[in-house]
Amino acid sequence: MSLELLLCLGTLFLLAGIGAPIAYAILVGALVYLGVSGQGIGVAGKVLLDGLYSGFVLLAVPLFIVAANIMNAGTISDRLLGFCVALVGRFRGGLGHVNVVASLIFSGMSGSAVADAAGIGKIIIEMMTKSGHYTRGYSAAITAASATIGPIIPPSIPMVLYALISNTSIGYLFLAGIVPGLLMGAVLMALNSWISYRRGFAIEEGVPLRELPGLTIRAFPALLMPAILLYGIYGGVTTPTEAAAVAAFYALLLAALFYRALSARALFDILVESARSSAAVGLVIGGALILNYIVASENIPGLMADALVGLDVHPLVFLLAVNLLLLLLGCVLDATTIILVILPLFLPTCRELGIDLVHFGVVAVVNCMIGLITPPYGILLFVINAVTRIPLGEMIREIWPFFGVLLLALLALILFPDLVLWLPRVFGYAG
User: Fold this and answer.
1) 270-302 residue pLDDT tens
2) What is the count of structural domains for the chain?
3) Are 204 and 94 in contact (CB under 8 A)?
4) Among 150, 172, 151, 175, residue whose Cα is nearest residue 163
5) Looking at the domain assignment, is residue 16 inside a domain?
6) Distance (Å, rounded) from C-alpha 329 to C-alpha 289?
């Protein structure tokens, strides 16, 4: 490892350690490397422009963010919740089931775990606590755990970022996330049922079945969004980036014209907030592009690949080791940083060992989502704390069982790649 790289990493970890935003830490560390190595700041500009011009797929990120914020602002979330309550609210632990099913449905619209937790999650936490059957900590914990499904079922902002660094098909990545997302929902609902019986949670008063068709009709236009997205991508009508634009436009039509729940002022606020969120992601992407250039200049991926192949590492052992590392990194780093900065280091080795990059990407994204609820960083815990004022301590005490079953689901995805690759293969994926 060269002196320049040591100074880069030292600066990065020092700034991150004293609380600087990770994007700034990466950018400053990268600039230190370029300055010490005598390459000049112009190299950073060239790398950024080359990365952005070749990364047309990045346009999908702000568009999905806009779509998610519009869905949260209108009455769309309320209509979806009414549908979910009628569907599964009649069982023991019903509102917990509603929480998970709502996340499964909303994940087909936002692609963002934070949007899920801050939007529809806040509403259902209030429903659970007002019912008097659930503690604040349990309501917040199951909300955080179910929000991790958001970026697994398409559309998915993290998978768009992974496609950027791995040059894999976004369409196949989206397809590959459907079964894992359903598996995560199933294990969370199973755990909720077990805890509900064990703690004796009361059964909610069920919505009469005769009202279900009406509630379904009210929610139907919103439920159409995932179908429109998937048909657009897999029917050859749109590219994934164009599908993101369609999603944002469809959400706007629903909220403003069909449901008449969005004013001009509210739309302006949504666009401003979406711009801020997109800029935050963009800073990390910019820093990651420069840092990846530095890593490539030092030939670190090649050295790692040569060392691991020389050790004759079994692909399964490699996958398990990488996922253990990602779980540890998830305690202190956000998912965007892990995907853009850490995962590129392992891609050459995956190719050498014959590990399918779609399988690796989905497993890595699931791992990163679990990291969102892992203390001490656990950004979803902080988001829910910010929007509900439920103390972090109460959430952390309740989060561990959900963390455990999600780890079991992750292990199943690692050991049985067909859970991830079956659906893409049905649609022609040759991997």
Assistant:
1) 888 888 877 877 777 777 778 777 877 777 766
2) 1
3) yes
4) 172
5) no
6) 20
